[in-house]
Structure formats: structure tokens, C-alpha cells
Amino acid sequence: MSISTILSIRNLSVSFKNEIGEQLAVNNINLDMRRSQTTAIVGESGSGKSVTAYAMMQLIQPPGKITSGEIIFTPAHQDSFDILQLNDNSPALYDLRGGLMSMIFQEPMTALSPVHTIGNQIMEAILTHQAIPKQAAFDLAATMLERVGIQNSRERMLQYPFEFSGGMRQRVMIAMALVCQPQILICDEPTTALDVTIQAEILALLKELKATIDISVLFITHDLAVVAQIADQVIVMNQGRILETGSVRQILNDPIHPYSQGLIAAVPGMKRQPRLDAISNDSTRHNYGVHPLIAIKGDRQVALPTPLIPAEYQL
Amino acid sequence: MSDRQLYEDLSTRRLTWLRFKRHKLALISGGFLIFIYLIAIFCEFFAPYEPNWRNPKAIFAPPQEIHFFEANGNFQFRPFVYGYSLRINPETWVREYTEDTNQKHPLYFFSEGQKYQFWNLFTARHHFISTSEGQYLHIFGTDKLGRDIFSRIVYGARISLSLGLIGVVLTLVLGVLIGGLAGYLGGRTDNLIQRLIEVLQSIPTLPLWMALSAAVPVHWSPLGVYFSIIVILSFIQWTGLARVVRGRFLALREEDFVVAARLLGASQLRIITRHLLPSFMSHIITTATLAIPGMILAETALSFLGVGLRAPVVSWGVLLQQAQNFQVIVLTPWLLIPGIFVILVVIAFNLLGDGLRDAADPYGGHQL
Amino acid sequence: MTTRNLLEVTNLSVKFPLLKRGLLSKQVGEFTAVDQVSFEVQRGSVLGIVGESGSGKTTLVRAILRAIEPSSGSVLFHGNNGTVDLCQLSHKQLMPLRTQMQMIFQDPFASLNPRMKVADIIAEPLVIHHPEQPLEHRQQVIKMLERVGLEADSLHRFPHAFSGGQRQRIGIARALILNPSLVICDEAVSALDVSVQAQVLNLLADLQEEMNLTYIFVAHDLNVVHHFCERALVMYRGAVVESGPVDQIFTSPQHDYTKLLLSAIPSLDPDIKLSPLDRNSLDLD
Q1: Residue B21's closest chain A neighbor by CA?
Q2: Which of A197, A215, A309, C25 has the CB geometry, 3.0–4.6 Å to C264, for a possible disulfide?
Q3: Which CATH class is domain C5-252?
Q4: Can you tell me the ipTM of this complex?
């Protein structure tokens, strides 16, 4: 694993139990996150993208279970370790969550406690990881709120989540996630529930933060246009498997796997067309066959059998 | 058909049953309750004696042990009990009963014993368990009049358990009707009904019940008193259910599929019966199941206090009324056995209700 | 002779009373969800209504169908039996008209009764409006199923057995089985995955041709509206701020809010950077 890889997932499988039996939500995936870059996992519902993110912080609860794999994390100036080997309740895991690695979620209202003030919640995040006096934590929290674009932060610290709009709450969540200076930020569909104008503001904020703070981001979404705006690397998932990886330009301008091609063709573009190129059957159960990810030219990977990969891409 | 296809073809009811089966405790409770209700239905058959029959040889007698081995070690296939030999302690004047190994009372199953009227329909003599003429069996001992506690518990089951059931049905009808009206019509009707519920719920229940109970005419037949008690208990209980129903109606009213039905032109009646009711039936059944123990406990409490059912009616509450003083615990603790049955039944209903509630909730698991 | 317009909405408003909590819930003010909206829908066309949350677009279309009561205004519907003002009719008078106007809902999970079989769900409109012909219902249901791309053995299954896209198809079948002229799609594809969304949009387009439908298409995704609709209304805080042919709105927006909305749409091209307008610098009211 090179020094430019901050996180490496190997052979990860997560299963869920329901009335019919056990089903694999994530099926033996391998992926690398590059340091200081934004990696986007894009997929539709049931692809396993959110489950992968939850697994990274050992947040999988029954009826879900991590059945195999390792997640090797290499923080700056530290040794690598396997996150999945950390024990429940171990200090190392507590340091990880919210400290070295933090997460923002899709629904800001349910991710924030409605009975505590915003200030309290951010300060809790700080004080869990740093032993500093309360006043210092307050100042730090207020500064962070200003940083994410909330004006009059010292007054707003005393307000409750219901006094904030959806976009503001998302900013608060970002503040909470970044206040302990994590090295990895996981964003689980953070703009899906927001209006498009608010989404644009949040994306602009995230891009600006990424430019000024050295942080590696894992961005989970189903929206290809958002991926185009914010990602450096893209991973395409479907039904628990990775189908294709590459840079954002490679995947969006030049997709190889038929699923990726279909996904892009299905997005209504900016021009009026009589029909969209829909993926033929109801793609929720479309079977692309199981193929390992093969490395191809341009530092990309695709899960197709070699005969189906156009010659100019093959190594 | 694959497993998945079988699963997809199941109706909600079948799915609920499958989920319910996974709760072992709830299943066991369900089985236990069916067993107890069967005993209550056939109580004349299961009890060896009539509830008011007295055995003058056994006043405040302790439970008899069932033996398979004689005193000299012989094994006997047919179980038996020993009769009592009574000695009155000269110093404390307390009755002391010991086993008299000379009196062997063998137990007979499914054979003739005391005559009884089965549900007042016909006369019969066969009992599940009995002894021969002149001999006696008191598995749970006797009370101060020499009446067999075990028989009285069995007969009492019929009254206590049926009262709970019928009471809940009445509560259901009132609760669903009134709560449904409030939730569906909304506005002023809803307001009025809610205020009424609040007033009713703020009245202290026990004193209210006692007052209403005292108002029941003394000369009414036991059956009349029985039904009055049911009405009195339901008088308050329906409010809780009505609130739940109202809440569900309010929530369901705005569900897309209900709006869709309205836009299709469905009549109010069709919407209520076809769309709203089926959706919260499982909720209601669960709430009702959890309300039954409340009813049983309420009747028990009232009768225990002497303002509920009265002799000669036998219910578990009436039985417990005999156990009101301290001497009971020390000298004749077997009089408290009806309490154990109350506890068991209440626990069983609660476990069953929990199981039903978990099974009926389709989103109980993790949704990702 | 059929008119050019199928629907004419004039000064439609929907106001909700704000209640003070008390023993008797006194009204202390009102909230205007839809503010004097007027527009026309031509027969056979597709009109898009686009706006963000709180714009009032869903309230507007539900008020048109009288699922919510409008406070004032008129909705002229030029139906098969002449012209009526939907706002003036009682619910009983509306009943026969319901066969001519239907709605497809956003949430594929909530819009179907989970305890009814698919066959019953789709047949319900027939049962309500043509109860005297029960034998023909089944035939019509099967035909409708095929038309929306579902297999005939879906009939005896329950909604939970189907995916989101398939459930939307069931909802479409239910809405169209009575051959309405006006179909309102209330964010009908917003909750679907992108690939499924494409299929459903194609299906809606095909059905429009086959059955001569007029659509009002409510959405918050501008790209979808651009793709699917001919004309569009842009709503902001209950009012229509811009209307016109879709291409015109997109290439030369007039109102500041439309400009803001358009600037916020991310492009699929990674080299075209998103540069949203600053909301505060615009005059939005």
C-alpha cells in the first residue's frame, strides 16, 4: 500500500439477516482511498454504498454483520491498523470515531439531538476527544460555526436544532464533524434531502473546506452530477459489488462498464430528448455476472471479463 | 418456487404470523393461555368438586401431597393421597393436620364423581380427576368452610377470564367507534371527544369504580352484577384505546394511499372499511391483548375489596378476599394460590401482547 | 367541439389557519401556501411545475383535485360533459368527474395500500365507478398491467413484493384504468433511482401518446422537467414567478429566483464548475 493511500478496504463482506435468510449487502469489495482526495462511491439503492461507509467506523448493528475483510487505516505519521480488529468499547475505537474519522449524514434533523443546544452538541464532540477547559471548547465551537458559514455564531450556539433550517443544520453537522480535525470525512448522501439551491451552497462549502484543510473525503451519493462536481476518484457500486473505478473524468466522460454507461445515459441532460436511454429491464435485479475487478490502462479498474474490455484499455 | 418468491407472495397476515413464531416466549404464553381458557370453558369437568361443596372433615386443611409410593416403599401406578388426621394443638388452639397413612384415597381419571351441571345445559358426572365416594382430594387445600380451593380456582377461572375478554370486547367497540370518529372527523368533534376523554381519565379510577359498584342494586342476580362490573370497568378503559385509535386514524388519513382512494372517488365508508381499518387492526388487537390483564386485575382488585363480585359467585378476586388478613400468610398460606394464577395469566397476556406488537410492526428491523 | 385548453386555473389560493393552542384552538392568523396562481393547460400537453420545498407546488395540485380545499379562485375543467368550475362543486358532484382526472404519487411505498392485492388496487376505480360490470374488471386489469410493463402473475401479490419502480407502475395502472384526460404526476419519479426513473419517464411518455393524456408534472429536479415538459411554471413561496416554454425558461430566465435555481444545478461535466448565485445578492420578494 503506497504512502498516498490513506485507507484500504480488502475483501469486505457485510451480511444482513431477514425473514428469508442472510443476504450480502456488501460482497467482497476492495477499494483504496487516496490521501487528500475525494473518493465518491456512486450507486443506486441496494448497492451497498452506505453499508460500506458504516462498516468503516464499525457502525454495523444486528441484523447486520461484517462477515469478512479488513479496513487498513494509515493516519498521518502513524502506523497502519485494521479498524475491524478494534474491539467494541476500546479506547482506540473511541479515538477513531469523531477523532481521526468522522461522518455526516443525510438527514440533519435526525442526526442532531433535538433536546440539546447546537453549542452543547459541538462542544460534546470536542470534549470527547480533547481535554480542554469548557470555555476553550466553546470558543472553538463558535469559530467552527463561523467557518462553515453561520453568522452570529456565539448567539446561535445557544439555539436548538429546530431553530435552524435544513441547510443550516447540515452546516452544523459539518462543523461538528470537522471540529476535531479528522483525517477522513465520510459523507453519507449529505445533500440528497436538500433543495437544489441549498445543495449548491453545501457543495460549495465542502469544496472550499477541502481546499483549505488537508482532509480525505469519502462521498456517498446516487447523484452523478454531484459526483462530477465534488469527486476526484469515483467508485461505481451495484448490488454489493464494485463494477468500475477511475478518476471522475474517466468515469463520466468515458465509462466502460455497461452499468456505468447506462447510469449516465439515464440522467436527463440539459437538452430535450424524446426518450432517455433507459437500462433495459428493471435494473434493480439486473445481473451483470460476477467478475473480479481488473486493472486497466489509466489507473482504472473494471469488473468485466477480459474479452469484453475494449482492446485499447487493456494493459 | 424459490424462498424469495414464497416470501413475496405472502400476505401481510402470513408475514405477521411468521414473525410471531420467532418469539418463543410469546408462543409459550399463547399456548399457556389457550390451555387455561380450555380449563375455564370445561371447568365443571376439570374441577373435582363444586365450588360451594363443603367437606366438614377438612376445615382450613393444607394441600394434600400426591404420592406414587406407599409408606412402605411400594410403587403404585395409580397416584393417591392420604386423608387427614386432625389434632388441635392444646396450647395454641391451632388446627394441625397430618397425613394419615391408613386412609388411602386413590385418584381416578375421567371417571365418575360428583354430579354437576355443564354450563347449566345438562347433568354429568364425569370428572378429569376424582376420588371415590367418601374419600376426598384437596390439591390446594381448603378454606374456612372446607371448600376445595383447587375447584374454586378452576371455577373462578371461568369468571375472571371471561370477564376480562368480554370487558375488552366492550372496550374495543367503544374505543374504536369513538376514537375513530374523533380521528376521522377531526375539528370540533375531535376536540369535544378529547376533552371528554381527559375528564374521564382524570377521575381517580378505583374510587370511581367503587362508587359505581356500590350503586349496583343488591338484589340483582349474580349474572346481573357480573355484567354491571364489566360495564363499569369498560367505562374508563375505553378512553385509553380511543386515544390510540384516534392517533392512528389521524396519521392514516394523510397517508398517500388514503388520499389516492379519496381521489378515486371512494365513499367515506369504503375508505374506513377497506383502507383505514385493516391498517390498524393489528395495532388494535395488540392493544386489546395488553388490556385484558388490566381488566382481570381490576376485577380482582374490586372483588378483593368487596365491592366487585360477591359470593356465591366465584372469581379469583373473591377467592383472594378470603386471604385478607395476616394470619393467612402464617397459618394458611395456600389461600393465596389464586394470586399466583392471576400473576401467571397477566404475565402470559403481556408476553403475548409484546410478541404480537413486535410481529405486527413491519419496520422493527434495520432499514438500510 | 373540444376546447384548446383542458384546464384553466384563475387566482387560486390556499390558505391555512394558524391556530393558537388553547381550550378551543383560536385562529390567530393564516399561512398562504398558494398565492393567487393562474395558468392554463392545453389539451395533450405536458406542463411542468417546478419549485423547491415550501414553494406550494404540491399544495397547488392537490387543491386542483380538491384533495385539499382551496380558499379562493376557480379551476375550470373542460371535461367530457362540458365545462365546470371544480372549486364550486360539492364532493358528491365531483364523484363522476373523478374518472377524468387522476393523480400519481411520489412515494411508491406509501401510495399503495399494503394490505391489498395488486389486482384489487388496480381494480378499485372500476369497482367504485362501474360496479355493475364485475366480470369485465379482471380483463381490464390484466390489460392495464401489460400496458405498464408488469407481468400478469403480479395480480395476486402484495405491494411489498415489488421494487419502487414496479410499485410506481402499479400506481400508474390504477390512475389510468378509467381513461382519464388529465393526469397529475406529483413528483412521480423523484423517489426512484436514476435508471428506474428513466424507465418510468419513458413509460409515461408512451402512455401519453397512446391514451391522449394531458400531464401536469410536478418536480423539483429541473433536468427532469426540461426533459419531459413543454411548458413550465416556476414557483417560489406559493407564487408563480415565471412561466413559459421550457427551453425559454432555461436559456433566458427572467426572474431572479429562476436564475438562482438554474445556477444551482450541477452539471454532469466535471469541467463545468458549479457557480451558484449568491442568494443574498438577489431580490427575491
Answers
A1: A19
A2: A197
A3: alpha beta
A4: 0.88
